[in-house]
Each structure stands twice: as C-alpha cells, then as structure tokens.
C-alpha cells in the first residue's frame, strides 16, 4: 500500500511540474498523467488527453500565486490535506497547504538557499519530510 501511495504521489508531482513548466493549460495535458487515491479508489488520466475532455472532468485552474521555480513538490499526510513546496526566486523553499476547505492565505517561507527544487513525502499522519539540494549537499526538513 505504501509503495502504491508513493507511486501516486510521484504521478501528481510530475503532473504539477508539467503545469508549471508548460506555457498553457492545453499543452500541460500532453504527456501528463495524474492519479488520485482514496482508501477505495485510484484513478489515472492517460497521457495526451484532449483539453476538451479534461474540461468535463476538472475544475478550472486556480492561481496559487508566488514567483516560483519549476518543479514544485506535493505531499499529503491525511484525508483532505495537501502540502505544496516550491523554490522561490531567492532560492528559499516556500510552503502552502490545503486543509479541505481552502488554501493557506500565503506562502510560508521555510528558508534555505537551495539550488534545486524540493521533493516531499509523507509516511504517516501529520508527518512530512522535504529534501532539497544546496550546492551539492542534500538538506532535509520535516514537520511532525
């Protein structure tokens, strides 16, 4: 089950990276696969799905703001919870979260001077681990 969850999270991370890198939402659908998990459900959207099909299945794009580098990281430590991490223009790691009702009001600055975007994973309720590279050294931060 844990391996399946990591696989699903990786798919979501790849999809979000494609969204931030792609110049338009229509182009972001090409080569992207998304997956979502719940205790009894797993759904995948195949690559190169036409935007007209996605328009019937997805809500519109929501601007989460920020001046961020490509390749954000997303993790979930519980039902209805998402934690989003991204590298800011000044190379610090930023964090926003979704609590089931809406996104946090602003990006939280976690600091650091990183040279690559973060990766995030949760291995249990109320626990997130984030890693990022800074000049060849790997740094680790966690929430518990």
Describe the protein in words.
The protein has 144 residues and is of the alpha+beta class. The protein starts with a helix and ends with a strand. It has 2 domains: 1-61, no CATH class; 63-144, Lipocalin. It contains 3 helices and 9 strands; from the N terminus they run H-H-E-E-H-E-E-E-E-E-E-E.
List the helices and strands and how they pair.
Layout: H1 2-21, H2 25-28, E1 34-38, E2 41-45, H3 51-57, E3 73-75, E4 82-87, E5 93-98, E6 108-111, E7 119-124, E8 127-134, E9 137-143
Antiparallel strand pairs: 1-2, 3-4, 4-5, 5-6, 7-8, 8-9
Report low-confidence residues grouped into runs of 5 or more. 16-45
Q: Helices and strands, in N-to-C order?
A: HHEEHEEEEEEE
CATH architect. name of the largest domain:
Beta Barrel
Provide the structure class.
Answer: alpha+beta
Oligomer description: single chain
* Number of helical elements: 3
* Helix content class: 10-25%
CATH top level of the largest domain is Mainly Beta
Radius of gyration: 15 Å
Question: What name does CATH use for the topology of the largest domain?
Answer: Lipocalin
Mean pLDDT: 74
Strand proportion, as a percent range, falls in 25-35%
Summarize the model shown.
Helices cover 22% and strands 35% of the residues. With 144 residues, the protein is of the alpha+beta class.
């Amino acid at each position: 089950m844990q391996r399946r969850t990591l696989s699903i999270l990786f798919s979501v991370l790849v999809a979000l990276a494609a969204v931030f890198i792609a110049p338009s939402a229509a182009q972001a659908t090409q080569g992207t696969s998304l997956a979502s998990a719940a205790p009894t459900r797993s759904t995948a959207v195949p690559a190169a799905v036409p935007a007209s099909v996605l328009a019937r299945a997805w809500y519109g794009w929501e601007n989460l703001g920020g001046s961020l580098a490509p390749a954000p990281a997303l993790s979930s430590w519980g039902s209805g919870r998402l934690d989003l991490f991204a590298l800011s223009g000044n190379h610090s790691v930023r964090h926003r979260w979704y609590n089931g009702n809406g996104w946090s009001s602003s990006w939280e600055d976690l600091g650091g001077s990183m040279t690559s975007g973060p990766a995030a994973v949760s291995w249990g309720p109320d626990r997130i681990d984030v890693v990022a590279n800074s000049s060849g050294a790997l740094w680790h931060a966690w929430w518990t």
